[in-house]
Specification:
Shape: globular
Family: In the C-terminal section; belongs to the trehalose phosphatase family.
Structural class: alpha/beta
Radius of gyration: 23 Å
Bound molecules: GDP-alpha-D-glucose
Organism: Agromyces mediolanus (Corynebacterium mediolanum)
Helix content: 40-55%
Keywords: Glycosyltransferase, Transferase
GO cellular component, one term: cytosol
Strand order of the largest sheet: 5-6-4-1-7-8-9-12-11-10
GO molecular function, one term: alpha,alpha-trehalose-phosphate synthase (UDP-forming) activity
Length: 483
């Protein structure tokens, strides 16, 4: 069979995500091309996609452009177009200014606009239609993240033959917060179209299951939800956690390259060879707790518990969602804080904070991880936080201290980190000092344990576990719960 656009409609495995694993780029002279954006998801799914005759459905990153499907590195790429207005309402609006703050425990106030919701429904329909058209009989369709929560139900209605998985990369909030959403029933109905709904933490799966009970009264047993169908039959949906991870071996391989280690040493020298380099790496986002981290660091300098000759903070804040007003404000606040801290505490040749508002190649990130004595992950809420896992994966020298917020999914697994509540500024300061002063033996002991965890649950393991749960979904006996 062929689709209207001439694509062979026979893909056995389809991934649907807001963004494609490739970006459309035009070089300076206007030559168009495609560049892979090597994220963790691509690395994890590439082998499966190649082996299973897979296709990836998503947006190419530019508005008001339509592209024909094409093959890229053995994966069929099926671009879904978005207009500039849809980008504003569905993506920047409903996804990033309604769902994102709501699902991160309303750290910032979510905006609710009916026209954003209408665009969200419309765009979810377009993604679903692309999958409906491209999927072979009985194919596996794996839908990703909060931008596409209505897609599972749309798929099931049109194609009951499909095996449908959904994975939520961000937290799922407690009912008291979730219930603010004017479209709370529609979103849950959308998700329940899947056979397996995956979350980062057991707590997220629990919040989802409770919301299902509160809003619909469906019976749930452990990770199984019994959804009544129109014919009176009960359909079982699995809702449980599958903590995402990274390509740990890939990161370690980069870290072991001599030129990357040389670059790490150079970074140290350039910073004036301080005793301690602290590092933060985040998208510039209010969920990441960048202000809390800088406040604590500033007070340690003010109180003389740290000095700029001995300790310096490098903060990479990669540009993110710059057209959303909350993100513009956050950038201004952070940059004001950096200026104040450097003005108050910096000395010639010894700034308090080196603040970098750019994205870097992965090799440079790894060199920074190697140069950092203390890695600061102080998110106020974070689905997982891959930066924490990347830092650990790179430290084959068994050195370095990970300071990690309890409000990250990663803290469920990385128990040997120095765990902190970032809202508690005094506690955060004490933890930072404890990290700076931690004896070498203890650093090595903790890092070894952390590394074992990240190596054993890497991203290949994550996708295999999810797909196993999905393709064996019918076989899971009722009442099985997970710990
Ligand atoms: C969402 C959830 C969940 C950042 N700056 C640069 C750069 N990065 C890379 C990091 C890391 C990734 O971006 C960020 O991942 P995180 O997990 O830390 O955070 P989110 O972007 O918020 O991701 C999160 C994740 O989805 C996966 O499910 O863990 O909770 O919010 O890989 O290294 N990479 C490069 N240059 C940069 O400047 N190369």
């Amino acid at each position: 069979p062929t689709t209207t656009r001439g694509v062979r409609a026979a893909y056995e495995m389809i991934v649907v995500s807001n963004r494609l694993p490739v970006d459309y780029v035009e070089s300076a002279d206007g030559t168009p091309g495609w560049r892979s954006s090597p994220g963790g998801l691509v690395t994890a799914l590439e082998p499966v996609m190649r082996a299973e005759d897979g296709a990836w459905i998503g947006w190419a990153g530019v508005a008001d452009r339509e592209f024909e499907p094409f093959a890229h590195d053995g994966i069929e790429i099926i671009p879904v177009p978005l207009t500039a207005d849809e980008l504003e309402d569905y993506y920047e609006g409903f996804s990033n200014d309604t769902l994102w703050p709501l699902y991160h425990d309303v750290i910032a106030p979510p905006s609710f606009h009916r026209e954003w919701w209408d665009a969200y429904v419309r765009v979810n329909r377009r993604f679903a239609d692309a999958a409906i058209e491209a999927a072979a009989e009985g194919a596996v369709v794996w839908v990703h993240d909060y931008q596409l929560q209505l897609v599972p139900k749309m798929l099931r209605e049109a194609r009951p033959d499909l095996v449908i998985g959904f994975f939520n990369h961000i937290p799922f909030p407690a009912y008291g917060i979730y219930s603010q959403l004017p479209w709370r029933r529609q979103v849950i109905e959308g998700l329940l179209g899947a056979d397996v709904v995956g979350f980062q933490r057991a707590a997220d799966a629990g919040n989802f299951t409770r919301a299902v009970r509160r809003l619909f009264g469906y019976a749930t047993r452990g990770s199984i939800i019994e959804v009544p169908e129109e014919d009176g039959e009960l359909r079982r949906v699995v809702a449980r956690h599958f903590p995402i991870s990274i390509d740990a071996a890939g990161f370690e391989e980069i870290a072991r390259r001599p030129e990357v280690q040389e670059r790490a040493a150079e970074i140290r020298r350039n910073l004036g060879d301080p005793e301690t380099i602290m590092l933060g790496v985040d998208r510039l986002d209010y969920t990441k707790g960048i202000r809390h981290r800088m406040k604590a660091f500033g007070e340690l300098l003010r109180d003389g518990r740290l000095s700029v000759e001995d300790a310096t903070l490098v903060q990479v804040a990669s540009p993110s969602r710059e057209r959303v007003e909350t993100y513009r404000q956050l950038r201004d606040e952070i940059e004001l804080m950096v200026g104040r801290l450097n003005g108050d505490h910096g000395e010639l040749g010894h700034p308090a904070i080196s603040y970098l508002h750019h994205g870097y190649p992965r090799e440079e990130m790894v060199a920074l991880y190697l140069a950092a004595d203390v890695m600061l992950v102080t998110a106020l809420r974070d689905g997982m936080n891959l930066v924490a896992k990347e830092y650990v994966a790179c430290r084959f020298d068994d050195d370095g201290v990970l300071l990690l917020s309890e409000f990250t999914g990663a803290s469920d697994e990385l128990r040997q980190a120095v765990l902190v509540n970032p809202h508690d500024i005094e506690g955060l300061k004490d933890a930072m000092i404890a990290a700076v002063e931690m004896p070498k033996g203890e650093r090595a002991r903790r890092m070894r344990a952390l590394r074992r965890r990240v190596q054993s649950n890497d991203v290949a393991n994550w996708s295999a576990t999810f797909l196993e749960a999905l393709t064996g979904a019918g076989k899971i006996p009722a009442g099985v719960s997970d710990s």
